[in-house]
Amino acid sequence: MNSEQELHEVQKQVKQLATKLDAVDKELKQTQKSQTEFLTRMSHELNSPLGIILGYSQLLEISDLTDDQSDNLKEIIDAANYLNEQNQHLFKLAIAKNSALKMEKVVVKHVIDDSLLRFADVIAHKEINVVLSEDINSMSIKVDGHYFEQVLSNLILNAVHYTNQAGTVNLDITKQTDSFKLSIHDEGLGIPEQLYPEVFTLFHDRNVENVEGLGMGLYLAKEYIELMGGEIGFDSIDGQGTTFWISLPANGDSIQ
């Protein structure tokens, strides 16, 4: 084979590769579109039954109920409100996948304080000691503030729920050259190794006694972090607690 033939063969291979890459690109775009359509449709499908449940529940609230019936009704309303909130998150996620990020500089300590204030009742009820590392007090980062707040709130509440009565939740942040890593450690039961692949899947639940929820929060956290170009993961020892961590890129003045 002479040089001209070799060049022709290389050009042929490059053209074939370009065709394959184009096909992969189209497939990825279609997958992303399908996922967004699925989330939007799911949110829409949940709206109707949730509206009916909440509507009838509100009518029952003004009825003459026994104490037990009132307690049961409260559980129904609380569960429906929780589902409605998660449904709104799904809808927002569908929108987020087709929207530009709104990057802004936020003070990490302020976001954490807002979350702790929001969950003050459950923290006090469980007598949880929340410990922040010194580095958190002076850290500012450039992220999409809304998504970052959603992720931190979910991880903090998750840690509080899984930590035993009068236990400790530790928050730490590590500053690196091109990224930062924020970790949240709980003193709960840990995650069995066989459940590791399911932790960030939609509707997964660790099925731990006295912990409510569909497990949708971790799925949403993963989606939001990946939208910002970061990673989320965890380290866990069954029976000894779990550390969830997020790592986000530092671009220019994004960390100080």
Walk me through the topology:
Blueprint: H1 3-61, H2 67-96, E1 103-107, H3 108-118, H4 120-126, E2 129-132, H5 134-137, E3 140-144, H6 145-162, E4 168-175, E5 179-186, H7 216-227, E6 231-237, E7 241-249
Parallel strand pairs: 2-4
Antiparallel strand pairs: 1-3, 4-5, 5-7, 6-7
Helix pairs in contact: 1-2, 2-7, 3-6, 6-7
Span from first to last CA?
Answer: 59 Å
Helix content: 55-70%
Instruction: Indicate the CATH class of the largest domain.
Output: Alpha Beta
The number of domains: 2
Alpha carbon gyration radius: 23 Å
**Order of helix and strand elements from N to C terminus:** HHEHHEHEHEEHEE
Overall pLDDT: 78
The count of strands amounts to: 7
Which architecture of the largest domain per CATH? Answer: 2-Layer Sandwich
Ranges where pLDDT stays below 50 over 5 or more residues in a row are: 206-214
